[in-house]
């Protein structure tokens, strides 16, 4: 019987090769998970190890790593973006500045959502607003079941867009799927956000990471050559996509393959923000996050 590798990954131009009927790796055929939106694959991966290989949000991976989940991080960034524009208010609602959000209610799908991690980090770094001084109105629980949310996190019903429209929050953090699908223009709260995003990138030497590639640790230990071949296949597609664009935007610039200074910088800022916000509570380094990869595939951070 043919061997099958189960993979959960969103359909991007750089992951389309996974759906090619002729593609196999290490003698394994590919079985793609039906997870749409892709974040619906994250809880099954970190709670049940449902897939051999899975795209995973970096905030979810940080929490899973802290919880001891046997999942290995590969240095492949599948999605990312700047996020100053991800903090918005409803059209026609009262204007509010980022520095006035302390004491207010802000919607976000889950406190551990990666876009929320980046926005809270920006609010603290650039506007002096601490995550603990905002009430975070969420609609979903964390993917890692053992994670205990801070006391200023509330749960409500509906979508984050509904929360914003009915005035249950003065602002909301929306990730790319919700932001792209919003009906009508939401109003970014951070002024001159395009310039602020590029300034953030120049300051930190990276574009924020949203999703990376992970693999079950036992599969990596048993089949390092297969994982290496799959890793190289992802890398070839990412490099081809980046090379095809003469002036790539942030979402393409965010794509990364291999242990680079940009990748390590992005991981370190995510770690720093996560610790500051109690998304994780145990210090960790980028090298420790990539330890499984380094030991088995030999590219140190």
Automatic annotation (TrEMBL):
It comes from the Bacteria. Gene3D superfamilies: Periplasmic binding protein-like II. This is 4,5-dihydroxyphthalate decarboxylase. The lineage of its organism: Bacteria, Bacillati, Actinomycetota, Actinomycetes, Kitasatosporales.
């Amino acid at each position: 019987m043919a061997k099958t590798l189960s993979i959960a990954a969103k359909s991007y131009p750089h992951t389309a090769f996974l759906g090619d009927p002729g593609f196999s790796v290490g003698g394994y055929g590919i079985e793609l998970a039906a997870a749409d939106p892709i974040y619906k694959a994250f809880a099954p991966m970190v709670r049940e190890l449902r897939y051999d290989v899975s795209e995973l949000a970096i905030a979810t991976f940080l929490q899973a790593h802290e919880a001891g989940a046997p999942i290995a991080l590969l240095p492949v960034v599948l999605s990312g973006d700047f996020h100053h524009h991800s903090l918005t208010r409803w059209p026609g609602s009262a204007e509010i500045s980022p520095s006035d959000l302390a004491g207010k209610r802000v919607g976000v799908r889950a406190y551990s959502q990666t876009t929320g991690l980046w926005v809270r980090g920006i609010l603290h770094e650039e506007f002096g607003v601490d995550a603990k001084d905002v009430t975070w109105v969420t609609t979903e629980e964390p993917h890692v079941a053992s994670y205990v949310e801070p006391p200023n996190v509330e749960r409500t019903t509906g979508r984050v867009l509904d929360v914003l429209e009915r005035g249950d929050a003065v602002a909301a953090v929306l990730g790319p799927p919700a932001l792209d699908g919003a009906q009508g223009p939401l109003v970014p709260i951070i002024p001159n956000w395009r310039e602020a995003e590029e300034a953030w990138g120049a300051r930190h030497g990276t574009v924020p990471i949203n999703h990376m590639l992970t693999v079950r640790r036992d599969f990596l230990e048993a089949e390092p050559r297969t994982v290496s071949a799959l890793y190289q296949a992802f890398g070839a597609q990412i490099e081809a996509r980046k090379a095809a664009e003469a002036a790539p935007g942030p979402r393409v610039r965010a794509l990364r393959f291999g242990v680079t200074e940009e990748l390590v910088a992005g991981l370190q800022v995510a770690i720093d923000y996560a610790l500051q916000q109690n998304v994780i509570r145990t210090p960790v380094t980028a090298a420790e996050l990539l330890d499984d990869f380094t030991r088995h595939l030999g590219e140190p951070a």
